[in-house]
Amino acid sequence: MDPRYTQLEQAIRTGDVEAGKAEAVRLAESSLSPLAIFRECIEPCLKNIGDQFSRLEIFLPEMMEAAEVVKAVQETLRPYLKAGEVAQTRKGRIVLCTIQGDLHDIGKNIVKAMLEVNGFEVKDLGVNVNPAEAIRAAKEFEADIIAISALMLPSLPYVKDAIEMVKTNEDYRRRYKIMVGGGPVSRDWAKKVQADGYGDDAVEAVKQATSLMGL
Amino acid sequence: MKNTTRLMDVIQRSLTGPLMEEDVFNRQVTRGIRRVVREYQIQVHPENIINQDDDLADRTWQAALDFLAACGVYNQSTSRVILYTLEELLSALADAPDQVWLGSGTDAVLERYRRVEDPLVPINMGSSIGSPVPEELFIPLMQSYIQEPLVDVTCPASLMTVHGQEIRVGSPLEILAAWEEVDLMRIALARAGRPGMAWTGLMLSMSDAGQLSAVNPAGLRSSDMHTFGIVSELKANFEILNKLTHSIRMGGIVDPYANPIYGGLGGGIDGQAVLITAAMIALSVVFMAACCGSSPTHPFNFNDTGKEVMQATSLAFQALARNSHLMTNLTITPVGGPGTKTLLYETAAFTIMSTVSGISRLLGPRSATGVVPAHFTGLEARFSGEILHAAARLDRGRAEELAQRAYACYVDQLDQKPYGLPFQEVYDLGTIQPTKAWKQMFDETLAELAQWGLHFG
Question: Which residues of B touch A103 (CB under 8 A)?
């Protein structure tokens, strides 16, 4: 990586929010364009962090901290971006939840961190989320993707409900892709219930989301 | 302290503890684990599957107590932290039971606290632990476990439907399914000739309403184990406390579990070991467990037979066995399924590791990671039963050699997810006996382990 980005990369890797913000300002006020900072530093750095997690060389705490720094850096750099450039710094917007009747959250949190370090903006709705609530949140957040996790067999019908709500409404069908994952969810089941994407784990979830965004 | 008094104390703390947002609690867990790992110099041996270092186990125990006293347990319903001081934790741990009768009549068995390298054979809870099963296969499948002489207690599979209908959490179908689980278990226990055998339930009931409906003298009995999972990591809510309250008032055997994910908030192996230890202490102190259970999970393969997870698990359960008299259990969750040697090697490695590390009960195997319908059979519980008896004669040094040898036989298979064959293809549904091919694979693998030096019979 370009040596000019060493300090920002270091701040992301060590989870140092204040250092990240300060370095982002310093870079933006030098000759570098904010978009270049995203493309040449933040994106490759985050991709590397995601790859390291997929090999379990680093863990959820490091990913959560890196994601926090990047969020702060994005906010810091926003005033420096020209009109239309904001959208170019994001891969897509995702609402994420564990579905109704299910309280598992660590798997979902890992997916969230992986999506964030791979450039997606994620709104985490938490656990035990009603399908209608997930769709309402997708509208408010102007999401591109609704990502649903289910770890328990008796929760799966609610995942189907969410998919049916989207697929039977022309507006929702056009606006949102639905991806699903979790222990009892298989690729075959996802296909059968007409989910747009299926992620076996957090690494696969990122691949699916990227593919659903046409990237 | 009497159970009801303890329960009132837990409820009060969850109503009056410090208010905190959940994200802040998550960060508190992460930072707290990091702190104690550093301060207590927790560093797992990079090669050993089974911990060989007593001082490290004792430091892990101290680290877990320190962490739990600082961090507490989060109640999502009240956004408050249930906190205990170090002295209160130690006092509650001193009051924990060290033995419990499971089941009734001639089918009852005594579970007892075990030390590291204890020659007492752990209880064998032969079961697929809530893995999905079609209705028509529930009875023969459960019978295949219950009929095994080396199986002491059991746990139902999860019905995929009830009266042909898909089951929904929080709906009348969940209540019906809870009762169906009880009714079908009664039939399976009777058919296997062991009506008083204890079983853990309810597997299908995620909501408190589902659980409470069938936990009563005519349903899940007080001589059975009443289970519920806490929310990872170190979180609960009123639905969980409702289940606990009902079981306490009914005099049931409280048998909860916590399954930290490797690479999650605890981080790597060292932090995971501390987090598992702390979670087991929390199950005893906050959730009043008779026996504290876990199945630490790999984030990608969803098993617990990978090296890193076994390393953390071994250290954590030795920390518990050396420093408390808690009864503890582990669930084997292999990737391999019936009809594969992978499943048997995974079961061997995990059972050896668990037995010498001081567990009082082994659950499983939850074959094919517990997610593939009907991909589990009673024969693998016979296998784990054989290993439990043989491993109780081992010291940690010899156990390490054998666990490493078994591990080498399956490590390359894990990513391929060899889920094997369904029950109906490896068992004769008329006789409820394994097919010749599956039994032959069992015999061959047992003979191979005997050649390695495990003594059976």
Answer: 206, 231, 237, 239
